[in-house]
């Protein structure tokens, strides 16, 4: 049965005051919306409860994580992988709460992150960061390498991953054997697998990562060793076909030496990766003929994507996080994979 609508009687004054009042009301509401003062209308009085995208509307744009996906806002069809040199990450940086909050926010955008330059005598700063990452209900986990380096200023690698979307293959993490001491810090290897494929009937995407931080004074030698590392790991992990070498290599793409001469292998990033925006020295390398799951790549630019002042960007790191997006379902490689040397990786 139709409901009768109540007829409103128009007052003569409304013909004159109505349009101006409406314009004024729209201007006021627009101003309040732009300045973030409409929370009292939406019940969002607690400003600390804002989501990542509300607090930092530009963050999701590079990865487009706000598209249809799972409960975490990440699309089920893809995995986002990143490499991030957090620059002298230790007790001092962990005491900077503003920086730590931004680090946690950045890490939450990705499913697996290869981290370099952790400098702490114990793991307390890493555990503090992981706790902050998980403070919004996430379930990230971390695995750390040994402390590495020839000097007193030693570093650790880390892999951090979202355990609700990805699993690290048990026992798969190890340091590459470097008995001849060719590298200042031995690369750190681990294998991962998506918990669910995005395509119906497909196998979940699995991959092995090689986490690297070269010494800036030894890049010529180390890059000509890393091609052997890549090939050795690929030969050792014979049941896997997708390999991702990620890290701070301290050289531009055209300076990758013998590593850049492996057929099919290339750095997928095309943007500047230092905070100053002058160099592209952080890389994610894949064999494009094999890892056909690759979709896109880029960086999180603190000033562009997070709208941060340069001073705060520099406190976070002198490196920008580099990311790459892959299908969460396994694809077949293009053509036949070339044979690799039968060397031992560990």
Structure in words:
- The longest helix is centred in the N-terminal third of the chain and has 21 residues.
- The protein has a single domain, classed as Endonuclease/exonuclease/phosphatase (Deoxyribonuclease I, Chain A, 4-Layer Sandwich), CATH 3.60.10.10.
- Helix content is 24%, strand content 23%.
- Helix 5 packs across helix 6.
- It contains 9 helices and 13 strands.
- Strands 5, 6, 7, 8, 9, 10 and 11 form a 7-stranded mixed β-sheet that branches. It has a 6-stranded mixed β-sheet with strand order 3-4-2-1-13-12.
- The chain is α+β, with helices and mostly antiparallel strands.
CATH fold group = Deoxyribonuclease I, Chain A
The total strand number stands at 13
Query: Can you identify the CATH class?
Result: Alpha Beta
Q: What helical percentage do the residues reach? A: 10-25%
From the 3D coordinates, which CATH architecture would you assign? 4-Layer Sandwich
Radius of gyration in whole Å, from Cα?
Answer: 25 Å
For the record, what is the CATH homologous superfamily label? Endonuclease/exonuclease/phosphatase
How do the helices and strands follow one another from N- to C-terminus? HHHEHHEHEEEEEEHEEEEHHE
In short:
The protein has helices spanning 14-34, 39-42, 52-55, 91-94, 97-107, 124-133, 219-236, 302-305, 310-316, and strands at 78-89, 112-118, 140-144, 156-162, 166-168, 174-175, 188-194, 206-213, 243-248, 265-267, 282-287, 294-299, 322-327. The chain has 346 residues and is of the alpha+beta class.
Task: Throw out a few tags for this protein.
346 residues, alpha+beta, Deoxyribonuclease I, Chain A, 7-stranded mixed beta sheet, 6-stranded mixed beta sheet, 9 helices, 13 strands, 24% helix, globular, disordered N terminus, disordered C terminus, endonuclease, transmembrane helix, hydrolase
């Amino acid at each position: 049965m139709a409901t009768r609508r109540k007829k409103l009687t128009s007052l003569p004054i409304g013909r004159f005051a109505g349009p101006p009042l409406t314009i004024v009301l729209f201007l006021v509401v627009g101003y309040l919306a732009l300045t973030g003062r409409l929370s009292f209308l939406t019940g969002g009085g607690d400003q600390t409860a804002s989501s990542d995208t509300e607090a930092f509307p530009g963050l999701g744009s590079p990865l487009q994580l706000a598209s249809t996906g799972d409960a975490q806002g990440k699309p089920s069809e893809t995995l986002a992988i990143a490499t991030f040199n957090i620059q002298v990450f230790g007790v001092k940086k962990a005491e900077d709460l503003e920086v730590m909050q931004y680090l946690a926010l950045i890490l939450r955008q990705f499913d697996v992150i290869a981290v370099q330059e952790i400098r702490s005598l114990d793991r307390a700063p890493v555990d503090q960061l992981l706790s902050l990452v998980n403070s919004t209900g996430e379930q990230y986990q971390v695995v750390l390498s040994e402390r590495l380096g020839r000097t007193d200023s030693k570093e650790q690698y880390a892999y951090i991953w979202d355990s609700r979307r990805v699993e690290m293959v048990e026992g798969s993490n190890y340091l590459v054997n470097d008995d001849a001491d060719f590298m200042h810090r031995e690369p750190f290897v681990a294998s991962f697998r998506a918990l669910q494929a995005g395509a119906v009937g497909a196998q979940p995407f699995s991959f092995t990562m090689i986490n690297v931080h070269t010494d800036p004074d030894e890049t010529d030698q180390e890059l000509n060793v890393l091609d052997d590392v890549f090939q050795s790991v690929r030969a050792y992990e014979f049941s896997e076909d997708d390999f991702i070498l990620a890290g701070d290599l301290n050289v531009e793409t055209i300076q990758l030496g013998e590593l850049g001469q492996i057929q099919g292998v290339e750095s997928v990033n095309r943007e500047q990766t230092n905070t100053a925006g002058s160099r592209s020295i952080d890389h994610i390398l894949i064999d494009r003929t094999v890892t056909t799951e690759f979709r896109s790549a880029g960086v999180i630019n603190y000033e562009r994507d997070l709208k941060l002042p340069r001073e705060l960007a520099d406190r976070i790191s002198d490196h920008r996080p580099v990311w790459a997006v892959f299908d969460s379902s396994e694809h077949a490689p293009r053509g036949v994979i070339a044979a690799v040397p039968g060397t031992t990786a560990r």
